[in-house]
């Protein structure tokens, strides 16, 4: 039995209910810092489910992210991001994404459009995903993989905190890249 991922059929041929495996997935982000470097981080705790019938009929994706699980490898910065002037996790403990449209991009890609809610603000986002294959894992589960990203403006979601730099520019970019590296396990269907 091979454990190498492969794409034996187009992404539209899959059906069933899949749960995101948070242990083998990452929901990350990149922000430009002080105009010259990038700060990368991730949300370590999240849940998600994808459902589809063959041909992407009735396809849907729902993801809930625990905002307090933010991890930029700097505890002082993470604590600041949890506070009221940024994510305000005491009032807005979760982020949510709910798809509104899922369409194929060729045999090995998806465009997922949906509502992203951060800090009580909901905006439509579009995410292009590449299908990285499927595999039967050592425990007998069917596992599928997707990678994708999108760019959002954090101010659209009420994330306004900013500091100007003496020489011009700002400390934290408004544009944030969200990165998704997803492994999902088939539950049923």
Automatic annotation (TrEMBL):
The Lipid/polyisoprenoid-binding YceI-like domain extends over 17-185
* InterPro entries documented for this protein: Lipid/polyisoprenoid-bd_YceI, TTHA0802/YceI-like_sf
Return the SUPFAM superfamilies for the record. Answer: YceI-like (SSF101874)
Matching Pfam families: YceI (PF04264)
Q: Do you know which Gene3D superfamilies this protein is assigned to? A: Lipid/polyisoprenoid-binding, YceI-like
The organism's superkingdom is given as Bacteria
Q: Tell me the protein family, please.
A: Belongs to the UPF0312 family.
Protein known as: Polyisoprenoid-binding protein
């Amino acid at each position: 039995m091979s454990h190498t991922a492969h794409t034996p059929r187009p992404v539209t041929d899959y059906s069933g209910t899949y749960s995101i495996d948070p242990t083998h997935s990452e929901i990350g982000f990149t922000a430009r810092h002080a105009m010259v470097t990038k700060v990368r981080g991730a949300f370590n705790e999240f849940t998600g489910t994808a459902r589809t019938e063959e041909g992407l009929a009735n396809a849907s994706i729902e993801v809930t992210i625990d905002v307090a699980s933010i991890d930029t490898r700097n505890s002082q910065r993470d604590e600041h991001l949890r506070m009221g002037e940024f994510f305000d996790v005491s009032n807005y403990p979760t982020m949510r994404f709910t798809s509104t449209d899922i369409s194929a991009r060729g045999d090995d890609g998806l465009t997922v459009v949906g509502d992203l809610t951060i800090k009580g603000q909901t905006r439509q986002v579009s995410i292009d995903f590449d299908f990285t294959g499927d595999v039967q894992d050592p425990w007998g589960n069917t596992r599928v993989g997707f990678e994708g990203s999108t760019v959002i403006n954090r101010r659209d979601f009420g994330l306004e905190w900013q500091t100007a730099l003496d020489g011009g520019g700002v400390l934290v970019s408004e544009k944030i890249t969200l990165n998704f590296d997803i492994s999902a396990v088939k539950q049923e269907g």
